[in-house]
Amino acid sequence: MAFDANGELVAGGGVPRTKQTGANLRRILGQAGRTLDNGIKCNVWRADARGFSGCKKLNTSIFPNTPPARATGQSPLMINAKVEIDCIGHSLRWELPRGLRTR
Fold this sequence. Notes:
Blueprint (H helix, E strand, L loop, with lengths): L13 H18 L7 E8 L5 H11 L6 E6 L8 E7 L14
Helix pairs in contact: 1-2
């Protein structure tokens, strides 16, 4: 979720909160010695599905190299969060075969 370093929800709508959530994912994976490239599957929960196209653009900026599989749904979120993302990552050192790379 879009909590800042003080544990407060960042101000603004879906865009700043999605960016903060991505930064939080990056920090958490970094603490485990991993990067966002280790992401395999993300579930994105949005309070308002009308922002889905913007969500796709932000997903590309959060995961610039190899975006993980993603499921996106609309759901009322607790504490007016606007967006919540969970991410499953791997700890293996591997690379997609050339024919399967998306970029």
